[in-house]
Design goal:
Blueprint: H1 2-20, H2 24-31, H3 34-42, E1 46-58, H4 69-80, E2 85-99, E3 105-108, H5 110-113, E4 119-122, E5 128-137, E6 142-147, E7 157-158, E8 169-174, E9 182-199, E10 202-212, E11 224-226, E12 231-239, E13 247-251, H6 252-259, E14 271-272, E15 275-279, E16 286-291, E17 306-310, E18 313-314, H7 318-326, E19 333-340, E20 343-350, E21 352-353, H8 359-367, E22 369-373, H9 376-382, E23 390-395, H10 400-403, E24 411-415, E25 418-419, H11 423-430, E26 438-445, E27 448-455
Parallel strand pairs: 7-12
Antiparallel strand pairs: 1-2, 1-4, 2-3, 3-6, 4-5, 5-6, 8-9, 8-11, 9-10, 10-13, 11-12, 12-13, 14-21, 15-16, 16-17, 17-18, 17-19, 19-20, 22-23, 23-24, 24-25, 24-26, 26-27
Helix pairs in contact: 8-11
Length: 458
């Protein structure tokens, strides 16, 4: 009996020893969680956004004798001569973003790039690209960039914020405090939060936000919030300074709706479909709302047509449809499946290039105004406490602008949700509007701000 018990103990010890030392493959399998899988699916689509500038560094002079900067360096060299200045490129981290199309379209927060110049994007592979700002929506704190990449990039998988569950696991990716490729996880804590954040000396309100316990720090802004499938469900946006473990993100469905109009901007898309659409309730397609009489859709689509597919893939909303248009060139064809009066119809559109009148012609034709960029010199001469904007020099009698109460001397600072710093900004905000649209215009007038609703010329 004693011998039998000894044998059993030896066998048990052998089994325990085998269980205590799993193989390398078994160890990796045990450690792999849904969070690990989600990060692997999405991290390659996350970019670090920084701005690059050239600074001058005086060498061999001991303490600095002035404030530095280009002007001082030029004066110093002029009077003392000698190679005393070394110029270096310095990158300042701004925030994060996520790639949404293989051709380099990047979504981020507007506040991340609002004052950026020479924008640089970098991937976790160490690759970096220059980027240009295509369009921005300050009201919703969203912006679109284009990476100047020479090869296709990995785009993040789009999810939906319509079916989010309280308590589900979420993952925030980004570059907090300049530390590249950081990951935090938590749970979805609440819906429809409203917060106020300081911006440009004033408080800005944001509503309908996702609250999460995933840590979001400065530098995470603009980066993706994903679910355990690695799908984009939000854009990390803000953190409460005095609260630990509370972060906020813009729901991706809201971001898609806000960004859709920006995708029709000719700076974003070379191709033009020639109609305006609206997302069907429940995100089950796009309904044709308004056809441009001179556009490529005229004679092919009809008002109230419901677009269900584009290029053989299901269309969920207007953003989804326009993302497919963005990836086409003018003169290329896009195949659509539509429901017309309940019957399926196959339609093929040949995309065109959006007509491009000059910015001054655009504002004259649509608003009936003549304008000039507000320079610092002009602003000081007129006693206007602004450095940028668009000065109205004439509002034609009976024009849409004049009927809305705009007048010579007003300075346009915003059209709809787009800040207007110059003529190009104003033209970009108006280029895809159509005759009869009512457009909100914010102007600076005699030391106060005034809104006007302008009905565009037909």
């Amino acid at each position: 009996m004693t011998r039998f018990i000894s044998v059993l103990l030896l066998l048990a010890a052998g089994t325990w020893a085998g269980a205590a030392e799993p193989t390398r493959a078994e160890s990796l399998r045990l450690r792999r969680t849904p969070v690990v899988d989600a990060v692997e699916r999405s991290h390659a689509a996350v970019v670090n956004i920084s701005t690059e500038r050239v600074v001058a560094v005086r060498r061999g002079l001991g303490p600095s004798f002035g404030p530095g900067g280009d002007m001082f360096d030029e004066m110093f060299q002029q009077f003392f001569q000698g190679p005393v200045v070394e110029r270096r490129k310095v990158q300042t981290p701004l925030g994060s973003g996520c790639i949404i199309t293989p051709d380099g379209l990047v979504m981020t927060n507007e506040h991340v790039i609002s004052r950026a110049t020479n924008i640089k994007l970098s991937l976790d592979t160490g690759e970096s690209f220059d980027a240009v700002l295509l369009a921005a929506d300050a009201t919703n704190d969203l912006a679109l960039l284009r990476a100047q990449a020479t090869k296709p990039l990995q785009a993040i998988r789009m999810g939906s914020s319509a079916d989010l569950m309280l308590g589900e696991t979420v993952i925030a990716l980004g570059n907090p405090f300049g530390f590249n490729n950081s990951v935090t996880s938590g749970v979805l804590s609440a819906f429809n939060r409203e917060i106020q954040v300081p911006a440009g000396g004033e408080m800005r309100s944001f509503t309908g936000l996702i609250q999460t316990s995933a840590l979001i720090n400065p530098g995470n802004s603009g980066g993706p919030l994903v679910n355990v499938l690695g799908e984009l469900i939000g854009i990390n946006s803000a953190v409460v300074d005095q609260a630990q473990g509370i972060g906020f993100a813009i729901p991706i469905d809201h971001a898609r709706d806000a960004l859709a109009p920006l995708l029709t901007n000719p700076q974003v898309s070379e191709a033009w479909c020639g109609f305006r659409g609206v997302t069907v309730e429940g995100r089950k397609g796009v309904r044709v709302a308004l056809l441009d009489p001179q556009g490529p859709a005229q004679g092919h689509l009809k008002a109230d047509d419901l677009i269900e597919q584009a290029d053989g893939a299901a269309v969920t909303d207007y953003f989804d449809f326009l993302i497919r248009v963005v990836q086409h060139k003018p003169e290329e064809k896009i195949a659509l499946r539509v429901l017309r009066a309940g019957q399926p119809v196959e339609v093929t559109l040949t995309l065109a290039r959006l007509p491009m009148p000059s910015p001054k012609e655009l504002l004259r034709d649509k608003l009936g105004i003549a304008v000039q960029d507000l320079t610092r010199a002009v602003a000081r001469k007129r006693g206007i406490p602004l450095d940028t904007g668009l000065l109205i020099t004439e509002a034609a009698a009976g024009s849409p602008a004049e009927q809305a109460g705009l007048a010579e001397g007003d300075v346009i600072v915003k059209i709809e949700s787009s800040p207007v710093r110059n003529l190009q900004d104003a033209a970009a905000a108006l280029r895809t509007t159509m005759a009869g649209d009512a457009v909100s215009v914010l102007v600076f007038r005699q030391n106060y701000l005034a809104y006007a609703k302008v009905v565009l010329a037909k």
